[in-house]
Amino acid sequence: MASTAAHSISFSLLNSSPSTTTRTAAAVVRLTSSLRPAVRRLGFAAADPTFTRHVLAKIPAASGKAVRGVVSMTKKSVGDLTAADLKGKKVFVRADLNVPLDDSQNITDDTRIRAAVPTIKHLMNSGAKVILSSHLGRPKGVTPKYSLAPLVPRLSELLGIQVVKADDCIGPDVEKLVAELPEGGVLLLENVRFYKEEEKNDPEFAKKLASLADLFVNDAFGTAHRAHASTEGVTKFLKPSVAGFLLQKELDYLVGAVTTPKRPFAAIVGGSKVSSKIGVIESLLEKCDILLLGGGMIFTFYKAQGLSVGSSLVEEDKLDLATTLLAKAKAKGVSLLLPSDVVIADKFAPDANSKIVPASEIPDGWMGLDIGPDSIKNFSDVLDTTQTVIWNGPMGVFEFDKFAVGTEAIAKKLEVLSKKGVTTIIGGGDSVAAVEKVGVAEAMSHISTGGGASLELLEGKELPGVLALDEAEPVPV
């Protein structure tokens, strides 16, 4: 069955000598140790330790020279700007503060706010006047429940100052608040999507936003795959236009670490449907040494090989594609592993009856909802051979505790590998929710803040919000 399918695909691991990335990382660790006062001064306690080192390495004032990743999307970063470039300047910062709120307008997860703090703090400490822009939800015109007002207390707490909130994002009242903003101050504009012109990338609306500032910093990776007025349009009127620390880190990991990984490089791809991950799988087959598949998509692969899948989710129109992907992996020498056993249920429900069976023996009327213990062990053993791992998509229906075992086991395994020095990248979406649920998020090398943007970047697509930024000057690494 699945184990047979996996074994039919050649298992080859490519080894290489330690890369420049490893030496650069070691240098950054030493740099961070010697600059603990700078870490506190820049206010990076809200960010994870890896992010702190990443940010410090990009600030000329801290390191003497901006250190760039071995491979990135070669865009200029806010860390490339000098204090003279920023002091007294009005900086339009597009952040992704699209946080979840409960019915009482309380923030239920402040991850995105905390992720924006390092860039804002750096600008504040450089004497800039920060004009902060974001969207929240999908409002249709001015919609009070999507106001950014509930974000002000938490944002003020994290930044250590009272953030001023505007009632609009353009217009005379906003211009007055900008004029009154002191050096190191922060003004939060109202939800930019209250204007339909935002998502239409209307040039006149972009011009009005840009008129508030002297330069632009895009730190909203989650919307970088969209050409909106506040992400792409404003770059036509503001120079320089550069990446914030969070956006640059996303590019360095999702492009740099994946393009020139420490090998062996494994990709773990899960999720319910092959169709939603076609681009990611095809792109990763060009780069990885090992590809582990889980989630509902595996049953399409099983059926394509003539196996019985019972009532499991199958995309009938993707059977030929699954066969093609298996053949492509074999031709490229990529070790593609499917689960050898699965946890099946008699219905799609948290209280369903369940049992573990070989992947080749799913009976009629039963459906696969998780990978089994043998698969967990096989995947873990293979992951022990790796130096870089990227994970996108759960191994099963992890929303149901009974069928979350495989996903949680992968999360815990990546925690162990991270502590051994393996580069671990969580590529957005449900995988992020999984590592946070298990409580191992802080151990990961990088957790992407973008869902759709992460997928498109992994697929090799160009992101409009990134393409519009200024090109970086060549920096020796």
UniProtKB/TrEMBL annotation:
Gene Ontology CC: one annotated term: cytosol
EC number: 2.7.2.3
Cofactor(s) recorded in Swiss-Prot or TrEMBL: Mg(2+)
Binding sites annotated in the UniProt record for (2R)-3-phosphoglycerate: 112, 193, 226
Binding-site positions, ATP: 277, 399, 428-431
Reaction(s) catalysed by this chain's protein: (2R)-3-phosphoglycerate + ATP = (2R)-3-phospho-glyceroyl phosphate + ADP
Known pathway: Carbohydrate biosynthesis; Calvin cycle
InterPro entries xrefs: Phosphoglycerate_kinase, Phosphoglycerate_kinase_CS, Phosphoglycerate_kinase_N, Phosphoglycerate_kinase_sf
Alphabetized Pfam families for the sequence: PGK (PF00162)
Lineage: superkingdom: Eukaryota
Binding positions for substrate per the UniProt entry: 96-98, 135-138
Alphabetical list of CDD domains matching this protein: Phosphoglycerate_kinase
Keyword annotations: ATP-binding, Kinase, Magnesium, Nucleotide-binding, Transferase
Self-association state and partner proteins as the record states: Monomer.
Homology family: Belongs to the phosphoglycerate kinase family.
PANTHER family: PHOSPHOGLYCERATE KINASE, PHOSPHOGLYCERATE KINASE 1, CHLOROPLASTIC-RELATED
Protein name: Phosphoglycerate kinase
Organism: Saponaria officinalis (Common soapwort)
